């Protein structure tokens, strides 16, 4: 059984974008990008909501040669299978991409997968978090407060988590990796 992982670059106050939808403050430097690329290598399938897919499809045709970290990520992204969950998208425009209309298939899919699965986009990931399906949370805390926007974690959810890894970067970004804590008893 594969792990279902959600990851995001967030502000210190927990938002993936600001109140205007901007996320220019979240652009990773080379060190953070290279670290995130290594994490991404374990992913076999990336699941996106429509809006996150629209942002990520840049990597399908991203120009090569701008930086090693960007080239590495583009290669990993192009290699991975992708699933877009959307009721409004007519068809995907990237290779290795399947369109689904809901998440009813997610739990059996992750139970049968042989490589880790990521779920991206806070709106879509919120459904999986609320259903208790997410096994790991990877958060890159950026040293900026944005005061509002789209939260990385959905409201109204309580889960006990265990910190299993952390890393500090020269830029002040801190990576935190949490796993669901198993309830015994």
How would you characterize the overall build of this protein?
The chain is about 25% helix and about 30% strand. It is an alpha/beta fold and about 180 residues long. It has a single domain (about 5-180), classed as 3-Layer(aba) Sandwich (Dihydrofolate Reductase, subunit A), CATH 3.40.430. β9 (about 160-170) and β10 form a beta hairpin. α1 (about 30-40) runs parallel beside α3. The two termini are about 25 Å apart. The model has no long low-confidence stretch (mean pLDDT about 95).
List the helices and strands and how they pair.
Layout: E1 4-11, E2 15-17, H1 30-40, E3 43-49, H2 50-56, H3 68-79, E4 81-85, E5 97-100, H4 106-112, E6 116-120, H5 122-130, E7 136-142, E8 150-151, E9 161-168, E10 174-180
Parallel strand pairs: 1-6, 1-7, 3-4, 3-6, 4-5
Antiparallel strand pairs: 2-8, 7-10, 9-10
Keywords:
185 residues, alpha/beta, Dihydrofolate Reductase, subunit A, eight-stranded mixed beta sheet, two-stranded antiparallel ribbon, 5 helices, 10 strands, 25% helix, 30% strand, globular
Count of helical regions: 5
Which CATH architecture?
3-Layer(aba) Sandwich
Tell me roughly what share of residues is in helical segments. Answer: 10-25%
Structural class label: alpha/beta
Going by CATH, the homologous superfamily would be Dihydrofolate Reductase, subunit A
| End-to-end gap | 23 Å
> Which CATH top level class fits?
Alpha Beta
């Amino acid at each position: 059984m594969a792990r279902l992982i959600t990851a995001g670059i967030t502000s210190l106050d927990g938002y993936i974008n600001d109140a205007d939808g901007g996320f220019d403050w979240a652009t990773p430097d080379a060190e953070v990008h290279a670290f995130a690329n290594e994490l991404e290598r374990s992913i076999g399938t990336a699941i996106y909501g429509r809006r996150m897919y629209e942002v990520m499809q840049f990597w399908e045709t991203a120009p090569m040669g701008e930086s090693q970290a960007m080239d590495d990520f583009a290669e990993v992204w192009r290699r991975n299978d992708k699933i877009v969950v959307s009721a409004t998208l007519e068809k995907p425009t990237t290779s290795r991409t399947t369109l689904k209309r809901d998440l009813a298939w997610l739990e059996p899919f992750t139970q049968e997968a042989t490589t880790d699965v990521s779920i991206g986009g806070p709106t879509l990931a919120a459904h999986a978090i609320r259903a208790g399906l997410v096994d790991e949370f990877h958060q890159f805390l950026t040293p900026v407060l944005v005061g509002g926007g789209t939260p990385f974690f959905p409201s109204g959810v309580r889960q006990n988590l265990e910190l299993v890894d952390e890393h500090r970067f020269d830029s002040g970004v801190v990576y935190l990796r949490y796993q669901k804590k198993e309830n015994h008893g």
